[in-house]
Amino acid sequence: KLLVYPTDADTLLAEVMVGTSPRDVLVDPTGTMAYVTDLGGQITEVSLASYDVVGEIPTGGSLLGADIKPTGTFLYAANTQLEDLDIIDLRVDSPTYRGVAGRVEHPSTPTDLVFSPDGLFAYSLATDARALVVSATGEGPLLSQMTPQAGPVGAQVVLTGSGFTGGSVTFGGVVAPILAISDTELRVVVPAAAVTGPVVVL
Hints:
This protein is mainly β. The protein has strands spanning about 1-5, 15, 20-25, 35-40, 40-45, 55-60, 65-70, 75-80, 85-90, 100-105, 110-115, 120-125, 130-135, 140-145, 155-160, 170, 175, 180, 185-190, 200. It has no helices and 20 strands. The termini are far apart.
């Protein structure tokens, strides 16, 4: 259950049934929605105006800590069973709204997560590795996978994610020729002047 209390009193306002073994509660930046993660791999969305469940977002695995970007556009959840950070799309006009828009691989058993104040980085704990993991989470296109992860000049590379329409790709700062583009997939060629460095989708 999610128990709702006012901040200035001990009076119980509401009891809301949520998923199996709830773990974390987040409130969006507007203060209108709460999101509850659970060990059953689900996020329950609760209206803070009516205290009704308005959505359930299945992710698979087992969720622990989570946080919402300061812009309110994405929720990241630590999936301890799948050993990744699940990225939930909260943009109402997006085709992946209230769904898993991507997953960020995590080195080992993520348990908790918090965003930097500017929302550009997610800090998560890797329990088994006893480490703090920092993941870049900038706004814009969401890159979830690159196949292959490395290749010589002229190799074709497939990028998957969301928000690619009208985008461009650079390899180590060099613009890559685009063979095909959709909102969820980019097919590019490693450019001739590319050097070892990050692949960036703009």
